[in-house]
């Protein structure tokens, strides 16, 4: 079993904040979608595009763990193999409702039929329940193992992989705003401090207004 030294200890605080975003969106979306009137394709498109982005972000998040985290922990934290296998199995269980969302969502965005809407909200609720269970287990049991067994450089590689899904321009500000909404004042300072200077300036100039408009459109 291999552990990183105390001086190199990895800090997983950023993962916890990102998890809050996924929890929030999957909990909010069923009620928002259920309120869409049949045939209201304009509203279905607004919420559908958001759901597609959130689901893609979660899929990418899990892929990064599958490829960059679980293999290292299986090698270095062999006493916890059952736990890592459980995390992988939870990813598989979550993959099923996410696949159903991918199937139903284009139909609902195109026609806004009540049957598709109701089926979609049920599947999102199923995904939300499974996600809550998985993220709670991961934060309680796995993040301490990551801090012990992955180096900061290895953990940064996971973060860099996660950033690949973030779009450019306006949507980058929306993604950042979604994270900062769930952050404590200290976490907010840390997130912003780790951004390149141009990104920090852009957030200061336009970020909060852009995110406020986005959330108003989604949650109204």
Short synopsis of the structure:
The chain has 220 residues and is mostly helical. The protein has helices at 13-34, 41-68, 70-76, 81-111, 114-149, 152-163, 170-181, 185-193, 197-219.
Percent of residues in β-strands: under 5%
The fourth-level CATH homologous superfamily of the largest domain is: nmb1532 protein domain like
Sheet/helix structural class: mainly alpha
CATH first level of the largest domain: Mainly Alpha
The parts where pLDDT drops under 50 for at least 5 residues are none
Overall helicity: over 70%
The span between the termini is 52 Å
The CATH architecture designation of the largest domain is: Up-down Bundle
Number of H/I helices: 9
Secondary-structure element string: HHHHHHHHH
How many domain units?
2
Please give the radius of gyration in angstroms.
19 Å
Largest sheet descriptor: none
CATH fold title of the largest domain: Four Helix Bundle (Hemerythrin (Met), subunit A)
Count every beta strand, where a strand is a DSSP E run of 2 or more residues. 0
């Amino acid at each position: 079993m291999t552990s990183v030294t105390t001086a190199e200890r990895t800090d997983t605080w950023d993962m916890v904040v990102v998890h809050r975003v996924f929890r929030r969106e999957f909990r909010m979306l069923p009620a928002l979608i259920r309120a869409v009137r049949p045939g209201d394709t304009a509203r279905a498109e607004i919420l559908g595009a958001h759901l597609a982005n959130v689901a893609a972000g979660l899929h990418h998040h899990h892929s990064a763990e599958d490829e960059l985290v679980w293999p290292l922990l299986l090698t270095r934290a062999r006493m916890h193999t059952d736990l890592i296998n459980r995390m992988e199995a939870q990813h598989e269980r979550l993959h099923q409702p996410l696949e159903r969302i991918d199937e139903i969502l284009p139909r609902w965005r195109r026609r806004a039929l009540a049957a598709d809407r109701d089926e979609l909200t049920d599947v999102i609720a199923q995904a939300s329940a499974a996600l809550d269970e998985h993220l709670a287990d991961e934060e309680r049991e796995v993040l301490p193992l990551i801090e012990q067994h992955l180096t900061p450089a290895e953990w940064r590689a996971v973060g860099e992989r996660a950033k690949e899904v973030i779009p450019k321009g306006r949507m980058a500000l929306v993604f950042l705003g979604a994270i900062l909404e769930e952050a404590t004042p200290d976490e907010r300072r840390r997130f912003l401090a780790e951004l390149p200077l141009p990104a920090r300036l852009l957030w200061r100039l336009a970020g909060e207004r852009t995110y406020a408009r986005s959330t108003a459109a989604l949650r109204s």
